[in-house]
Amino acid sequence: MSVSFLAYVRDDARDLWVMPALARDNADTFEVSVSNGNAVELLLALGLSPEPDGIFTLDAFSGLVTAALRRHLGQRSPEIAPAEYAELGKMTMIHLGRSEGYIERRLGDLAGLVQRSRLAGATHIGWG
Questions:
Q1: How far apart are CA 29 and CA 104, in angstroms?
Q2: What kind and span of H or E run contains 65?
Q3: Is 107 in contact with 69 (CB distance < 8 Å)?
Q4: How many C-beta atoms lie closer than 10 Å to residue 87's C-beta?
Q5: What pLDDT is attached to residue 1?
Q6: 54 phi, psi to nearest 5 deg
Q7: What is the pLDDT of residue 51?
Q8: Based on the structure, what is the number of domains in the chain?
Q9: For 117, which of 7, 42, 43, 99 could close a Cys bridge (C-beta 3.0–4.6 Å)?
Q10: Which residues are CB-neighbours of 30 under 8 A, at least 6 positions away?
Q11: Which residue, 21, 16, 18, 5, is CA-closest to 120?
C-alpha cells in the first residue's frame, strides 16, 4: 500500500477535486508516493496527524513543508534496517527498511511538488 500526495483544483460545477490540466498530462511529475509507514513519518515531520485523505491549500501546505525542512536542517533521519517478522502458521511480514536521510529527501520532493503544482495552476495539495 502507498500514500500519494497530489496537486488539485476544485471543480465547483461537478463538486469534486481534479488535477489541473497540466498535471493530468504529466501525472508522474505531480505526484509524490510513499509507503504507508513512510507516509506516517512524513506527515508527522510536517506536524500533521497521520490521518488518511487530507487536503490543504497550496500555500498552507507549502508553509508546512518549509517549516519541516527548516526543522530538519543539519540533521538526517536515521537509517532503519530491514526486518522480518515471522510466526509459525502466520503470514511473514518484511519491512524493507529505509536509508539515512530518507525523510529529508521526501520533504524536498514535496517542496518540488508544491512549486510544480503552483505553476500548473493547482490550488490545493491532497493525499490519500
A1: 19
A2: helix 58-71
A3: yes
A4: 8
A5: 65
A6: -95, 160
A7: 81
A8: 1
A9: 7
A10: 6, 7, 19, 20, 22, 23, 113, 116, 117, 120, 122
A11: 21
pLDDT score recorded for residue 20: 82
Please give the residue that has the higher pLDDT: either 66 or 17.
66
CA distance 120 to 109: 16
3-state secondary structure of 12: coil
pLDDT at 54: 86
pLDDT digits (tens, 9 = 90+) for 109-123: 999 999 999 998 999
Average pLDDT over the chain reads 90
Q: Residue 62 is placed in which grid cell?
A: 507549502
How far apart CA 84 and CA 121 sit, in angstroms, is: 44
Q: Provide the residue range defining the domain that includes 12.
A: 2-127
SS3 29: helix
Q: For residue 18, what is the enclosing H or E element?
A: strand 16-18
Phi-psi region of 22 (alpha: psi -120 to 50; beta: other; left: phi over 0): alpha
Give dist(CA 118, CA 128) in Å, integer: 20
**Which residues, listed in sequence order, are joined to residue 124 by a DSSP beta bridge?**
8, 57
Kindly indicate the confidence band of residue 95, based on its pLDDT and cuts at 50, 70 and 90: confident
Length of the chain: 128
